[in-house]
Amino acid sequence: MTSAQVGWAFGANNVLHSSDGGRSWQVVAQAPANQVIRPLFVFDGQTAWYTLTETQTFTTTAIVLTSNGGQSWTRFDWISPTQFLNSISLFDQQFAWINTVDTSGAQPVFHLYLLGGSTPWQEVTLPGQDQVSTIQFLSQTVGWVVTTSADGSTQVLHMTSDGGQSWTTQTPPLPGNVPVTDGVSFQFLGFGDSQTGFLTGQFSDPSTGAVDSTQVYATSDGGQSWQIDGPAVPANTEAISQVNGWQITTAIPTFAPGIAMASLNEGEWRVQRFTLPTPAESEFSIVTNRLLFDSVISADRTTQVVYETQNGGATWQKLATIPFAV
Tens of pLDDT along 122-147? Predict the structure, then answer.
């Protein structure tokens, strides 16, 4: 859910959209014969992208965009059958930065995707020879790539301010309780505006792989610098997302038989425990600390049931049942 009223769902091989708070869902995209939709990228309530992949050759054939809630879609032929999507970064309704992996084993290729341009795909020079693990862009010119060392033990954060023509290495400060020999893995949470954003750094022992700490970093100057934001992320955290206008970072550590939601605000973690609507496999969508949606998959995996809580998990209301195959 991108708001209290508007959201997207991913069916067996289709995309669904809701504009009434998840009470009803309309199929807005269906994969052609012998192709699958994988995966779906949501930018906001109106803008989403998905890729089409052939079921026999397992090659990507196109990337498809809507900017009107699925009423219409624009298809763009894929770069090459030897390229596979690795990650995507969206920052408005017209542009996407895309990182791909080539079947030849060569360095993943990084592209700028320009809608309406004479050359839709433009390759960008990478900051080094290491493999790209993730990307995050704030505009057509400002963005980051995270590269992983050859042995996979650590990652490096690189920033560009000129659309990938040049790169600067960034080193966020090391938390006081982390050994200097630890490797780090970075994951962007996102930006709420052109100046404010968050990322996480997970620090682990390079010889054993044991995680020593996960830290949230924040920027208030458009990513020119990153500062430690609060204590380490609570242990056993399953997922981290951002809510409330991207100003609060929320972690969700699991515990039986419910969930604990830890909110980071003003440098302090506040933990709230609540029960789930059912014990079945589910996926959360957090709009605010009080408004959450839970999609529960049925035992036979033919439907998903959407629940809503408006009081932080104290009570849940069943909203809709969505078939996987329509």
Answer: 788 888 878 888 899 988 889 999 99
Q: Per-residue b/e over 87-107, b at no fewer than 16 CB within 10 Å?
A: bbbbbeeebbbbbbbeeeeee
Strand locations in 44-193 (E):
48-54, 60-66, 74-77, 83-90, 95-102, 109-114, 121-123, 131-137, 143-148, 155-160, 168-170, 183-191
Spatial CA neighbour of 199 closest among 163, 227, 159, 167: 227
Q: What is the pTM of this model?
A: 0.83
Coil, helix or strand for 278?
Answer: coil
3-state DSSP helix/strand/coil % of the chain, to nearest 5: 0, 50, 50
Task: Tokens for 249, please give them.
Answer: 């970072």
Q: How far is CA 169 from CA 99, 142, 158, in A?
A: 19, 14, 4
